[in-house]
Amino acid sequence: MNNINLKSFIRCKRKAWLDINGNKSFKTWSPHTAIQVTNQYKIFNGYCDGDLYSGLKACEKGSKGVIGLKLKISSFKNINAEIHPQILIRTIGESKWGKYKYLPGVYRIGRKTTKEHFIDLAFCSTFLEPFQESTIKKGFVISNYANTIKVEEINLNHKLRKKALDLFYNMNMSLEGLIPKITEDRKKCTICTWQNFCDKEAKDHGYLTDIDGIGSKTAKLLKNNGIHNIYKLSSQNEIELSNNLSKFNVQKSEKASKFIKQAKAYISGEPIQISKGEYLSNLLSKKDSGFFIFDIESNPDEKHDFLYGFIKIDNLFRNIEDDFYKPILNIKNNNTESYKKIMQILFSKQYWPVLHYGETEKLAIILIAQKLNFNCEEIELLKSRFIDLHCLIRESWILPIKNYSLKTVANFTGFEWTQKNVNGSKALYWWIQYRISKNEIFLKKIINYNKDDCLATLNITKWIIKNQAKKIKEKLKQ
Ligand code: SF4
Which of 97, 165, 221, 393 has the most C-beta neighbours closer than 10 Å? Predict the structure, then answer.
């Protein structure tokens, strides 16, 4: 057991348990982990000006940064333990190696320093101190945002170290027991290597957190009202549930009807139409026009949209031509030539609507228009052409699915990606690999993936229009 398991334990007790005791054949490869490892090395190397080496020899030599060190701990409550500090950073001091010592550091993804970072630093420092024969008062959290390395100093006081040791002891006890329950906060599961394994169990048991919009707090509220699973939820009376929830949380009570319908759809496998809102009316009024379908691939950490993909289609229900898809690579960020090409495409048919899934695409185009000095009127006109299929599907349908991501919704409408097990993170992983290797094969994979994303958006559009027509026919028959 080590500090890596301890970090998992803080995130989800079950993950720490599965990492040690689970059947590894149920584990899936995660692009997030691969991206993190690559980024982490790049940032650490940049922070240490290239003086970054591995293992004990690097400590003896006095390298500015040391990675890959593994130390066995023999003196902690008879537990077999190790520390694997992410990085050690050389600083002024006295240690067994000479007139310098090391302080621990961790890499941070995202904006917030969390308990995982604090505990990792505190745990590693507790055992690094006697090993290097020198005190450690602080550690570092190193992050990167928009190509700027940031370093935060963390005070590693006695209280924090005690907390880390207590947690390590608790983890040891937990690992010797039965498998812990699935976490209530299912957002954590999206980047977990055990997601498929846990999803199956959650579905089999009808866990409330499997329902879109139900997080840990709502699940608790529902359980307090005697609703312990999705089957019970689906049988509730909408007005009664809304009244019951309003005593605790007005916002949740307004969603009572949606929760019940979502549970019903999930169990029956049948979609439920809820309303004909603004987005749907807009799409239906333009359905006989030609369309652009637009999708972006980005690296959010570097604020870099590296691929813009377009489908140009005269008629949504006609077979599409061979040259219907146009990818525009933006290898160097903020490339005006790429921006001009994008606008050329969009204005080749200046009244055609632009279908996209999620708000990113529209925001990116507005930003490009601003960079190209479009005036307010031109920008407003451009904005009015965008139709967000994600908003549209959410305002008009409840689907029998767990979430409303492009992948899940498109799969439900019968679309399949040509490359297996792909998603946005995998595309980002390929992009990072391309940047390192300059191997064009990665670009081809990204382009194929983006083309499929556009086709998936098209498939959802067709599904919406067809099913709207079906509903109208059914109503006329009644
Ligand atoms: S998928 Fe979710 S519940 Fe399962 S181990 Fe991972 S984080 Fe925990």
Answer: 393
User: How many domains are there within the chain?
Assistant: 3
Residue 18, ligand 1, Cβ within 6 A: yes
Q: Which atom number of ligand 1 is nearest to the Cα of residue 12?
A: 8
234 lines ligand 1 (CB under 6 A): no
CB 351 within 8 A of CB 289: yes
Q: Domain for residue 211, yes or no?
A: yes
Q: Which domain holds residue 257?
A: 206-269
Q: What is the pLDDT of residues 145-195, one digit of tens each?
A: 777 899 999 999 999 999 999 999 999 999 999 999 999 888 889 889 999
- The answer to whether residue 475 scores a pLDDT higher than 80 is no
Alpha helices by DSSP H, listed for 191-334, are 195-205, 216-224, 230-234, 238-246, 250-254, 256-268, 278-286
Q: Which of 182, 204, 403 most suits a substitution to test ligand 1, by most atoms within 8 Å of the C-beta? A: 182
Q: Which residues contact 324 (CB under 8 A, 6 or more apart)?
A: 311, 312, 313
β-pairing verdict for 354-356 and 291-299: parallel
